Structure formats: C-alpha cells, structure tokens
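User: Hey, quick favor. My workstation is busy. Could you predict this chain's structure for me?
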Amino acid sequence: MGKRVGIIGVGQTHHAAKRLDASGVELIAEAVTRALDDAELTIKDIDAIVIGNMDHFENINYVDMWAVDGLGAFMKPVFKVTTGGTTGTTLGACGYYHCASGLFDVVMAVGWEKNSESDTQAAIATCANPTLERDFFAGAIGPLATEYSMYMKAYGATEEDAAIVAARERNNALNNPYAHSRQAVTVEDVLNSPMLSYPIKFLDMCPRSDGACAVIFAVEEKAKKLCPRPAWVHASVVRHDYTHFGDLEWTFMPTLERASAQAYKLAGITNPLKEIDVAELYLPASTCGVKWMDSLWFCDHGEAPKLVRKGTFHMDGELPVNPSGGVICTNPIGATGLIRVGEAAWQVMGRAGARQVENVRLALVTGFGGCSWSDVMILGAELP
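Assistant: No problem, here it is.
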C-alpha cells in the first residue's frame, strides 16, 4: 500500500491565444512561482519535478532540460511525460505516484503549451492511420463530430443539447480570471455560430491557448504540516483503447466507463451523481458534455440529454461541472488536464474564488486523449 498524498498548492498562468509577453520557459516560471506562493513554499522545498507537453507541437527536444530555468529544476530529479491530450492528467497521476511510492515527499507537476508557436492540427492528425483514416479523422474536430452524430442518431440528442453545455461553460468562465475565453454566450449564439464539422460549431469547440499550470503534491506527513486543508487523492485510474479509430465504440466511451467505475470503487462511491460535489471534466467540445455524461455513470446510456436540459450540471444544479469554464474556454494542451486537477483541488481547498462551489467534499477530474483514452482522478477533503 502506497503513502497517502494530498495536493497543497496550485498555480497557473493567465491563458491567452498568444502570450507574446512570455516565452515557453517564462510561462512555466509564471505557473511554478504561483504554485509555490499558493503553497507558501520555495523551490528548495521541492524534492522532484514532473513536466509534460505535446512535444511534437513546439518541436522542442528534451523539454525537461530546456525548461530547467523556468522549472527551478537545477540539480533536481526531473521526469518527463507526454501522452497526448491526457498529458496534463498523466502529470497529475505521476506527481501522485512519485509521492505515493515513498521516494519523494514533495513533488511538483508542471504542464505547459505555447500553441501559438505550433501547428496543432497537423500534429494531432499524425495519430490517425495515414492510409485508412487521416483524410476524414485528421485533427481534433472530425472524430468528435463523428461520435456525437452517432449518439444523436442512437438516442435523440440534439445540437441544442450541446449548445446548452457550451453556453453554460462559457458563462462559467466569466468568473475565472485565468480563462482564455471569457464571454457571455447564449444558446442561440452557439447555434448561430459557424459550422466547423456537423454538428460541431465554432462556439462548441475548444480554442488553442498559450499557458502553463503547476500542482504541488505532498505525502501525508508533509501535507498536514504545510497546508491547512489539502486536497487528498482518493483515486487515480487510466484506461486506453485501440489506436485505430475504426475499432472504437462510438455511442459510448468504454475507457471512461471503465476508468470511472474503477475510480469510484477505490473511492467508495456508489452513486456518483449524488455523492460527488463538483467535477472538472476534460470536455474538448460541448458535445462531449452530453454524450460522455452517460459514461461517467451519472445516468443510463442515452439519458444524459435529459440531465443537461434540466440544468443538472449548472452551477446551481445537482452536480456543477466545470466551474472554471473548462476546456472549451482554456486549452494549453499539455497543461489542460493538469488545470482540471488544479481547479478541482482548489474547490476542495476552498480557494476557487468567485467560481467556488459550497461545501466541496469530493471532486471528480477527467482527462481525455486521442484514440479515446481516459484518465480519472478523485480528490477529497478527508483522508482516503
């Protein structure tokens, strides 16, 4: 049995389409400094660092070495991970595992991306088979449009259901000073925005952002001394699927179902919709905020549209989802999943400011990557 671990500090940049005022290393330094300030630590208190990004975006080799000045990692153990869209949640898992293993007491996980200096869609397209799939599954939008089209046909979901999600999250972001896209949006605005790939429209889809996030993990003994209210890690689970899009199940998400089921089991959760207080979910398009709710066991297959229409996942609903505005408002891809971890931790710690949900005891985090793999983490106010 590993050691119990808590999150004691979080820092992130002010995200934007183009951060012309900062290099990638400077973005990393901004997030690291803010995380250290949040935890009231100095870099000397950090035993090891985990870093990640989509390294084929910026085409920087050995990011773990290139970023040493921004990380404060001189003569410290540094571990690099890159797992596509799930890089950020993988960083959270690695930070947790580094502490839980007993090898390190205090570990900082750092994710970053400078999408303004990369060809994001061209890089993402390389995950599709060049002969059989790349023409129609290239980039991020095609597969997401395909899965929601099939879900609509199977269960009667609508474009308006997705628009409800988009409007909800974009309006949530108005309370988040770090968010890239902060604009008041109506359901009609979403429905009238330009079509990208049916049924996904411009305001349904995530942006490309410049930004970074840092999250500090500590073993139980240290966490109790350093933080008045740590966000304790109750579960961290990952599930992968086949790499060919044609082999995937399109009307539900098997990896998310299996990862979340295992995470709930580890955390002792039997009714997630009733027991979880807030969720920071990796939803790259608003359509995912409909279809994927089924696979988180909030309802039976095909029942998610009813919950969306009822406002179940609004800030004043039964289970607020993405008080931060989520991925469709902020998406520095290597950091995106880690932002979910950090935002959920702030909710548990009571540090989420204007986007704080009251009395958070359990928070759910997800990460999503190409080829439909899923990460799930559960954080809690009490020791697991």
